[in-house]
Amino acid sequence: MADRAAKSGTQSFSRIKGTQDILPADMPQRHLLEETIGAVMGRYGYREIRTPVFESTELFQRSVGAATDIVNKEMYSFEDQGGKSLTLRPELTAPVVRAYLQNNLGKELPLTRLYYLGDLFRQERPQKGRHRQFGQFGAEALGSPYPEQDVEIIALAWELCRAVVPEGLDLRLNSLGNPEARQAYLALLKQALAPHAAAMGDRDRQRLETNPLRLFDTKDPDTQALLDEYAPLISDNISDEDQDHFGAVKAGLDSLGIAYEHDKKLVRGLDYYSRTTFEITSAALGAQDAVCGGGRYDGLVAELGGPATPAVGFAAGIERLLLAAGEAFRLAAEQPGLDVYLAVIGDGPRAKAPSMAGALREQGVSVMLETLRRSLKAQLREANRSGARYTVILGEDELAKGVCTVKDMADGGQQEVGLEALAVRFAELLAS
Ligand code: HAM
Description:
Blueprint: H1 2-8, H2 27-43, E1 47-48, E2 54-56, H3 57-63, H4 69-74, E3 76-79, E4 85-88, H5 93-102, H6 105-108, E5 112-121, E6 133-142, H7 147-164, E7 169-175, H8 179-193, H9 202-210, H10 221-230, H11 240-256, E8 261-262, E9 276-282, E10 290-296, H12 300-303, E11 311-317, H13 318-325, H14 327-332, E12 340-344, H15 347-362, E13 367-369, H16 376-386, E14 390-394, H17 396-401, E15 403-408, E16 414-418, H18 422-431
Parallel strand pairs: 1-5, 7-8, 12-13, 12-14
Antiparallel strand pairs: 2-4, 3-4, 5-6, 6-11, 7-9, 9-10, 10-11, 14-15, 15-16
Helix pairs in contact: 2-7, 7-11, 15-18
The structure holds histidyl-adenosine monophosphate (HAM).
Histidyl-adenosine monophosphate is lined by residues 91-93, 122, 124, 130-131, 134, 136, 138, 140, 269-270, 290-295, 297, 313-317, 319-320.
């Protein structure tokens, strides 16, 4: 291809790093996943919402947090012709909250349950399970401060992930407490680690200054060792009410038989969380093992200009889930079948073929038509390759007699069928 392009003087193009072409063979499993998401979300009473692919840059700065990796290093931001700074959405919670406020959804119902499915953009270093454009689905419940709502969201996330990856998933939870307790904790954390800042790498030393909670996401073993030795843990420093809330979330999960681990170092990479945070990981994945993440974000709606509204939600990565699911889910997804390959030989049949195919399609029969004017032999080979259940052959002699030959590809049996009766005959054949 490249040679041909070079010879003809034209340029050839490749996908942008970190993006993917989702080819036809991969679509059935995506469709099955989308159907599963719609069905399960519907059973929990969540309704779908779709928001624009880009939003104002400030929306993400104010919600995800100006000192987070996502906002600092990973956003695809650009100025439009009017000089306004826009960003391709790196996550969907903030856009959903923006849409909830702008469309007054909170006025319709005291509790709003929404779900979504869409593509996100983060300029991360691409690797297995990590892309720059990737799919996510998720749910947000806006309105309830109570632990039963956290439990519902976690159970929903767990059920959906398990529908795709039945084995090898783990659920980890933590509580980050309320924002006031968090401020006190952050001061404590800084104080405990400041004497050891010199032993940290540049990036972690900067995190200690700007966003010390993020230190718990570090991949640097030296910082990890420092944290193990000196860092107080947030869930040991939250208020009694926050402890009660967390206890009730755990009890709710116990009563549903959902196993979890309390991971005291789970902080998550976005700033809007308060109280419960959780992650679902897959043992089948490597370094990027989180298939789903979420938590409570009681301050975000007010931060984005709305009335104080407690909320909790989750989002799961589509590529990572499919990667963790492996072949089993791919095989469970049905490849779309073809009913008829219509082989035609000669000018008369070729002219007749489109209206014949049209009549069959009107009866719900799927038809693939020869448009390459190949020999009958080549067309029959193509019919075999196409996986069609039947091949319909129409030559000049048959057309003159008003019939065609119908070949059953499973047993090779052939019969002549009148052209007038063909569509009805097929509707019957395929229904039986
Ligand atoms: P998040 O942890 O940033 O949370 O993303 C959720 C999931 O998206 C991850 O667990 C992962 O499966 C997938 N993901 C993230 N980045 C990538 C990437 N570069 N390539 C492939 N998959 C990726 C959020 O986005 C929050 N909005 C979740 C939430 C909803 N919290 C409350 N409500």
